[in-house]
Design goal:
It is a single chain. The protein is α/β, with parallel strands linked by helices. Helices cover about 35% and strands about 20% of the residues. The structure holds glutamine. Glutamine (GLN) binds next to strand 19.
């Protein structure tokens, strides 16, 4: 078993997670079985309760663990399927240690960072290696070297190396080489100091991944090599990618990273076959057509808040040789009218979310998509608002709402299961992780999935209220997928619409390059189809201006 530890130097946001994931891609391409793991030094037990403004998206795993979004990179860039064991926070470490102390497991000893805290951390690395399903464990340490919170993790790694032998371990330090304009120079000093800090703790990196805006010249490489005590060929340049994050593995490969890592770890591997990956990148970079998709959400300025959704759109679009122009719309801005902002988009996507803010704007967006026959994909909350919209405006259930937004609504089309059963106290906690969905034969959903049984990841509390099923169905609202026992609605669609799909789960957590999720792929295909048919309408209209209603005359971009 071989181990790679990835630390970060100088500043945060260097893309350590992406770098670790990209190394995973390359090692898998060399036929190694790879698993990734993230250690987060913050004290939250998991990121589930953290605000997307601060922390970006919460990434949900099959087992329901609510984790850091870097685990999303790991799953998208490699074949590994992760569980709660792959994300460890300081909060969890201390929780474990304190519980043991309370149970008396330490037999009256003084409980200390070394060895008790570091033992728990080492235990988590061993847990993965003991499974003996892998050849390489890549562990990313969150935060920046020098942070007080990170120290116990680095100390644990120091001890771990001693235990497994240095020939089985690499420390890879991802660092910043800033370019100082006034001097026209890349500066190595911050990296020298960051590596010095690591050495103080007893860790010597063998590989430096240098994030830089300009190419590293020979002099800079030599300097880094000498002052940081790494071989010159282990100074790896990682410049900002030009187009897409999926270029990172290719960049690192051209810098020789995967060969270097295999040499350092004494791993004999074939040269990697990156043809499929390259093809995917080419399609992302230079697609033959483009479409504009509106994403209507709450955190539009925080790019990481809907990361997996944007990635899923990229995967699906690439598979159709298509590029996407995202139009990010703050739902609150749609509360008093949507036409101005939505009239030029090929499709509307409403992501998941919590709380009432922006909900009425999302309902307006769903209405626009339904009435104008614009392809629509509603994820989790997106499905719930589409349901409320249909109930209100088609079934004329005027007070239709979710009890999340109006506790006392007289028409709870979305509510807690307990409430549906007449129990008023809010005992429900979230439905998390993978649950099976049974798809109704003959529906659009069945065509999209090409299957009648699927499993998808959940993170929500509220459910469609089956009491309204028949009334809504009579008007064209179809429950196209349910839990196997038929009690929970998992998928909805509209009968008279080219593509109006909502799901109670989060398909965005299971999409990958070259393996787009069917719901996203179907959505993009529908957007492309609509775009072509709308363009035809527009052309017809130029010939006889009064034949086509104005709303059909949507400029394409
Ligand atoms: N707030 C909704 C619920 O709890 C939707 C959650 C989500 O979109 N992830 O059911």
């Amino acid at each position: 078993m071989k181990y790679i530890f990835v630390t970060g130097g100088v500043v945060s946001s260097l893309g350590k997670g992406l770098t670790a994931a990209s190394l995973g891609t390359l090692l898998e391409a060399r036929r190694l079985r790879v698993v990734l793991q993230k250690f987060d030094p913050y004290l939250n037990v998991d990121p589930g309760t953290m605000n997307p403004f601060q922390h970006g998206e919460v990434y949900v795993l099959n087992d329901g663990a609510e984790t850091d979004l870097d685990l999303g990179h790991y799953e998208r860039f490699t074949n590994c399927v992760l569980t709660r064991h792959n994300n460890l926070t300081s909060g969890q470490v201390y929780e474990t240690v304190i519980l043991k102390e309370r149970r008396g497991d330490y037999l009256g000893k003084t409980v200390q960072v070394i060895p008790h805290v570091t033992d728990v951390i080492k235990g988590r690395i061993r847990e993965l290696s003991d499974e003996s399903k892998y050849d390489v464990v890549i562990t990313e340490i969150g935060g920046t070297t020098g942070d007080i919170e990170g120290l116990p993790f680095l100390e644990a790694i120091r001890q771990f190396i001693l235990e497994v032998g240095p020939e089985n371990v690499i420390n890879m330090h991802v660092t910043l080489i800033p370019y100082i304009k006034a001097a026209h120079e890349l500066k190595t000093k911050p990296t020298q100091q960051s590596v010095a800090k690591l050495r103080e703790i007893g860790l010597q990196p063998q590989v430096l991944i240098c994030r830089a805006e300009k190419p590293l010249d020979r002099d800079v490489r030599r300097k880094l090599s000498m002052f940081c005590s790494v071989s010159e060929k282990a100074v790896i340049e990682e410049r900002d990618v030009e187009h897409t994050i999926y270029e990172v593995p290719l960049t690192l490969h051209s810098e020789g990273l995967d060969q270097l890592v295999c040499d350092l770890l004494h791993l004999e591997t074939p040269t990697p076959d990156l043809a499929d990956w390259r093809k995917f990148v080419e399609r992302v970079v230079s697609p033959s057509k483009r479409i504009k998709i509106a994403v209507v959400g709450k955190y539009m300025d925080v790019r990481d808040a809907y990361k997996s959704i944007y990635e899923s759109l990229t995967h699906a679009a690439a598979s159709e040789d298509c590029g996407i122009d995202l139009k990010l719309i703050d739902a609150e801005s749609l509360e008093h009218g949507v036409d101005a902002q939505l009239k030029d988009v090929a499709g509307v996507l409403i992501p998941g979310g919590f709380g009432v803010r922006g909900v009425e704007g999302k309902i307006n967006a769903a209405r626009f998509a339904r009435e104008r026959k614009v392809p629509f994909l509603g994820l989790c909350l997106g499905m719930q608002v589409a349901t409320i919209e249909f109930a209100r405006n088609v079934c004329v259930i005027k007070n239709a709402n979710s009890t999340e937004f109006d506790k006392n609504t007289s028409e709870p089309v979305i509510s807690l299961l307990e409430e549906q059963r007449g129990v008023r106290n809010k005992g429900a906690s979230m439905r998390l992780g993978t649950w099976p969905t049974k798809i109704v034969e003959g529906t659009l959903a069945e065509r999209i999935y090409g299957d009648t049984e699927v499993t998808e990841r959940h993170r929500h509390r509220y459910e469609f209220n089956m009491k309204y099923r028949d009334r809504m169905n009579a008007k064209g609202f179809v429950i196209s997928g349910t839990s196997p026992d038929g009690t929970l609605a998992e998928l909805i669609e509209l009968r008279d619409h080219p593509y109006f799909v909502g799901c109670q789960y989060h398909p965005e957590f299971q999409s990958k390059p070259n393996k787009p999720h069917p719901l996203f792929k179907g959505f993009i295909q529908a957007c492309l189809g609509q775009q072509t048919s709308r363009a035809t309408h527009a052309r017809a209209d130029q010939e006889s201006p009064r034949r086509v209603p104005e709303r059909e005359l949507v400029p394409q971009r």
